[in-house]
Design a protein that fits this description.
- This protein is of the alpha+beta class and 171 residues long.
- It has 2 domains: 78 residues, no CATH class; 84 residues, no CATH class.
- Helix content is 41%, strand content 20%.
- A 3-stranded antiparallel beta sheet has the order 1-8-7.
- A hairpin with a 6-residue loop joins β3 and β4.
- α1 runs antiparallel to α2 and α2 packs antiparallel against α3.
- The N and C termini lie far apart (48 Å).
Amino acid sequence: MKHSQSYILALTLSALFTGCVGTGPNTQQGAVAGGAAGAVAGAIIGNNSRGHNTAGGALVGGLIGAVAGGTIGNSLDQQRGTLYHTEAEARTRVVVAEPPPPPPPEREVIVERPAPDAVWVRGYWAYTGEGRRYVWVAGHWEAPQPQYRTFVQPHWSRQGDGYVYVQGYWR
């Protein structure tokens, strides 16, 4: 692959991954932004290495970046109180008559646990509320506060005559 094609591939992957930055708490945003930055850096390093392995570099860089970004975002969530600990805190104001079905799950790649207390949060489709769309949030490691050990996956909950979307939270 030529150098210009490699950079275009890396920038395209970056643009795809950063398209959902504004859709969740800092943990999700950090994982997405870190993955995008890591993919670009990995693609450049992979392209400049012997064998010009741009795609492999982008994949590895993206995974490492997502873990690092998610960890940093998680610490911001802890400081700012944007992590939810009950269903009532995590409940959104989106009320629909019938929840739209999410697409099938994407393939998970579990990387090495970054810390002994880290808990794997498997990937899920987060509902954006915009045009009844979902955005994939890749599985990632999170270090929860000591009193929390279980991550409750996002889900729809019946409320009155409709359903509300409940964001993922720790309990």
